[in-house]
Specification:
The structure holds 2 protein chains of 2 kinds. Chain A contains 18 helices and 2 strands. The N and C termini of chain A lie far apart (about 60 Å). Chain A has a domain at about 200-265. By secondary structure, chain A is an all-alpha fold. Helix content of chain A is about 75%, strand content about 0%. Chain B folds into 2 domains: about 65-155 and about 290-420, Orthogonal Bundle (MetI-like fold), CATH 1.10.3720.10; about 195-275, no CATH class. Chain B has helices at about 15-20, 20-55, 85-115, 120-135, 140-155, 165-170, 215-245, 250-270, 290-320, 320-330, 335-365, 375-390, 390-420, and strands at about 185, 190-195, 195-200, 205, 210-215, 270-275, 275-280, 280-285, 285-290. The longest helix of chain B has about 35 residues, at about 20-55. The chains are: A mainly alpha, B mainly alpha.
């Protein structure tokens, strides 16, 4: 009898639904936007700000005009379509002048050369940036191939260049599947190729200059067994210097006289826009990292004189604005160099920007070196490694990994600073080209559009760099906390 | 019994200079020193030869010649009859005033943005992220140019402010109106702001090489005096708190001491504001602040604030959660937790990068050249350089001045760092 009246439930009740305010969107809103009087005020303020921005700018964006010959024409079109008092963006200016923003005064029939150089730059960077990631590398090479096929066609590249590019990229794609490490050779050869593509001239100039490196390599391998690494390196560098100083120029002339192959040469003052910014930025980034590492090691060194020199150099460069250094490049180098030497202004600017970035990098890397526990140095010593081996195998990989975020933000700063070359008369995209466009009678009084266009491109590049640094940090993370 | 034989006395061989670690560092350093000396000699020799071929000599005498150009914004008296040195000083003052104003504004904005970015409010933190990313990833030059262009091309002309009789009769409003209770007018020529005037000013004192404005000096003396007295009051309060446990109420004393004397001095000197007013075709009275100055300050403040916000955010994040939990476990209220536990530790992380941002801002003021702001680079490195043709002297002097400013700031930073360093035992 009692067993029929069971007081123990033998089935679970289904869980009841949570109260409305504790679930779904309502809960999220309550917790994230309206959790208290202060937060609610902030939210309302935020909404008001967003509303103000959108209500002020949305019609302007929606009324954009892409087809017009001048700013006045743009405004007429906007008023005709959207009524009196309406505002609208005049992207027709970008449509008409985009090539100046990208290439400056580079000869239009040669546009395929910077385009090709840019595509190959990405292809050359892929093996470095995505070392060991076969899939990413192949994707990038594929994208570059498609990009170049289309753009080279549009820019009217000669068929030979088109076929050579396709062959090169196809070969690289195939190599990426088999031996991705070997692609670094292309990266190593790329600077010479890029120089030749951009500035043009005889094809033998970069080839003969590269042969100097070949001389260095051959001399080193021949001598290293007999003289040891230090001595043979010294002799190899000496031989290469001899090659560049005495053999390079005459040999180039002789070969060029026999086989005058080359491209139309383009002067530095025809460079401009993002072509200039990227040329300066990429070159300076490439060279500033090794110099920065050396400076940082010098600053950490026990040798008093080396340390003093490095500290003096770093503090001097960091203490003065970049503009003064650029003016040094344009005004003072003529005093410091032997009389009647005069070399290219872009090269001078690149050297100064490189030194500038190197000083900042040195401080960043010094931070990484200082952050390493001294046990790492002692362990390297205990293993009997000499100074350079210890640095290369133990200290620097860890120190550089620690300082990746700061290194990349220094690079971003450097790339943004390439706009300052406008002050020494080069045509950067921001001040140089925009000023030319705004000085045109047709586009006088236009200001939002060029700055938005240039700013957006800078934003994409810099933001991309900072995202890549986050990716790299995650990839290199070895602690398993 | 084995006897340890002495190490054979070694003789010095030349190869030991490279292969013996005892001598190697000396060899390398000597080598570097010689190379450096050769490099310096080469540079100096080139410079001497180049100067000689150009028929120039290296001296700074030109600094005492008549400058002959006008400077729009001058904090110390200057006319085009003044010397180049005077122009240099005016430029330096202009650099410093932009730097100081920019630092103050950037800090205020940066701290607010940094804290709001950590807020639990989803919308606000996203908005702040957008702001920070936008300003960090776009060159400063763009912000300077854009603010300058907007200020000088979209603001009304002075005549738009005029109210004619017909308009008054028809009840029409003028095309533009002044802001802040009719005291500030933004026109395409600049911003007109009220200027302080004194009925009974103290005049100025000529002490040979420069004139001192006694009114300014009086204000400075009073302000520093009040700060010192306030400091004494707070110290006394702290002493009393430490001996008796009771902290006396001091806030009204502080307010009185800090504000009272300044107000009294202003009344005594007859301080009043001269408000700009439209007469004829332009505004008269008050101070005309050039747009180049405003644009430079706005752009520098907005740009640097984005970096400062990141520094503040990472500084607060660097303090582990255990610290605030421990403070709560001790029974401290949230406000005191912030003041006594979190902030002192966060500041230790925040201050060094913050100061290097101040340094960057100071150096970035040289971008004022983009909007023709006559700062140090504009006067000494710009017009003076072009007029006298002395590139070498002007550039060296300018670098030296910037370097001195930077070194002073970093010396202050090092001083601060050593004072707040965790004392390791």
């Amino acid at each position: 009898m009692a067993s029929e009246l069971s007081f123990v439930r033998d089935k679970m009740l289904p869980p009841s639904a949570p109260p409305v305010r504790e679930a779904g969107a309502v809960k999220w809103l309550r917790e994230n936007l309206f959790s208290g009087p202060f937060n609610t005020t902030l939210t309302i303020l935020g909404i008001v700000v967003i509303y103000m921005i959108i209500s002020a700018s949305l019609p302007w964006w929606l009324n954009s005009v892409w087809n017009a010959g001048s700013l006045a024409e743009c405004r007429d079109i906007v008023i005709a379509s959207a009524g009196e008092g309406a505002t609208g963006a005049c992207w027709a200016m970008i449509r008409e002048r985009w090539h100046q923003f990208i290439f400056g005064f580079y000869p239009p029939d040669q546009y395929w050369r910077p385009v090709l150089a840019f595509g190959l730059l990405v292809a050359a960077l892929a093996p470095v940036l995505f070392a060991g990631q076969k899939k990413n590398m192949s994707i990038i090479l594929g994208v570059v191939a498609v990009f170049l096929v289309v753009t080279l066609g549009l820019a009217g590249a000669p068929v030979g260049a088109w076929i050579a590019t396709l062959g090169l990229l196809g070969g690289m794609l195939a190599l990426a599947q088999v031996q991705p490490g070997k692609l670094l050779w292309f990266t190593a050869l790329f600077p010479a190729l890029c120089f030749w593509l951009l500035w043009g001239g005889s094809v033998w100039v970069p080839i003969v200059a590269l042969m100097g490196f070949a001389v260095m390599g051959v001399a080193y391998t021949a001598l290293v067994a007999r003289l040891g690494p230090t001595g043979s390196a010294l002799i190899a560098v000496f031989l290469a210097l001899l090659w560049w100083l005495f053999i390079d120029v005459p040999l180039t002339q002789v070969i060029d006289g026999m086989m005058p192959w080359g491209l139309v040469s383009v002067d530095s003052d025809q460079f401009g826009g993002f072509l200039l910014a990227i040329t300066i930025g990429v070159t300076a980034i490439t060279f500033s990292l090794p110099i920065g590492i050396l400076l940082a090691l010098g600053r950490q060194s026990d040798m008093l004189i080396v340390k003093t020199l490095c500290v003096g150099f770093i503090e001097f460069i960091r203490g003065v604005p970049l503009i003064t250094l650029l003016f040094t490049a344009s005004l003072l180098l003529q005093y410091f160099l032997p009389p009647n030497t005069n070399f290219d202004i872009i090269l001078r600017v690149i050297i100064l920007v490189t030194l500038f970035a190197a000083a900042y990098l040195a401080e960043v890397i010094r931070g990484g070196l200082a952050a390493l526990p001294s046990g790492q140095y002692e362990a390297a010593d205990a293993l009997g490694l000499d100074y350079w081996r210890a640095q290369r195998l133990i200290i620097l990989p860890q120190a550089l990994k620690i300082s990746i975020p700061s290194i990349v933000s220094t690079f971003i700063g450097l790339f943004k600073d390439t706009t300052l070359v406008a002050f020494v008369g080069l045509m950067d995209p921001l001040k140089g080209v925009t000023q030319i466009v705004r000085a045109d009678i047709n586009w006088k009084g236009i200001y939002w559009e060029p700055y938005i266009f240039v700013g957006a491109i800078f934003f994409v590049i810099c933001f991309g760099m900072s995202r890549y640094s986050m990716h790299l940090e995650r990839k290199l993370k070895t602690d398993h906390r | 019994m084995a006897v340890a034989s002495d190490v054979p006395k070694e003789s010095f061989r030349l190869s030991m200079l490279i292969y013996d670690t005892r001598y190697r560092s000396i060899t390398i350093q000597l080598f570097v020193l010689v190379l450096f000396a050769l490099f310096l000699a080469w540079l100096l020799n080139n410079t001497a030869v180049n100067l000689a071929t150009r028929g120039k000599e290296f001296n700074f005498g030109f600094l005492w010649q008549r400058a002959g150009y006008d400077i729009g914004q001058q904090l110390i008296p200057y006319t085009n009859d003044s010397t180049h040195f005077r122009a240099l000083l005016v430029g330096l003052m202009n650099t410093l005033v932009v730097a100081i104003l920019g630092c103050v504004l950037a800090t205020i904005l940066g701290v607010i943005v940094g804290v709001l970015r950590l807020s639990k409010n989803w919308l606000v933190s996203r908005l702040m992220t957008v702001y920070v990313e936008m300003f960090r990833n776009i060159p400063l030059l763009l912000w300077i140019l854009l603010s300058y262009v907007i200020l000088s091309e979209t603001t009304p002309q002075p005549r738009d402010f005029r109210v004619t009789d017909e308009m008054a009769a028809a009840g029409e409003a003028p095309a533009a109106t002044m802001m802040l209770w009719d005291t500030v007018a933004v026109t395409n020529r600049g911003t007109n702001i009220p200027s302080p005037l004194f009925d009974r000013g103290l005049g100025s004192l000529d002490i040979g090489f420069m004139t001192l404005n006694l009114t300014t000096l009086a204000y400075l003396a009073v302000i520093f005096g009040s700060i010192w007295v306030n400091h004494r009051i707070l110290t006394a309060a702290r002493t009393q708190q430490e001996t008796t446990g009771d902290r006396p109420v001091t806030w009204w004393k502080s307010v009185l001491v800090l504000l009272g004397p300044v107000i009294a001095l202003s009344v005594a000197l007859g301080l009043h504001m001269e408000v700009p007013a439209l007469t004829g075709f332009n505004f008269q009275g008050g101070i005309l602040v050039a747009h180049s100055f405003t644009a430079l300050v706005i752009a520098l403040a907005l740009y640097t604030a984005a970096f400062i916000a990141e520094i503040v955010r990472s500084g607060i994040l660097a303090i582990s959660r255990g610290q605030s939990e421990a403070a709560f476990a001790l029974g401290l209220r949230p406000g005191r937790t912030m003041n006594l536990i979190i902030l002192p530790q966060a500041l230790r992380v925040i201050i060094p990068p913050l100061i290097s941002q101040y340094l960057n801002l100071t150096k970035n003021t040289s971008l004022g050249i983009a909007v023709s702001y006559l700062d140090l680079r504009g006067t000494l490195g710009g017009i003076t350089l072009n007029q006298t043709g002395r590139e070498l002297e002007c550039m060296l002097l300018m670098m030296l001045i910037y370097l001195t400013i930077s070194l002073i700031i970093s010396a202050l930073m090092n001083l601060y760092n050593t004072s707040v360093q965790i004392k390791a035992r």
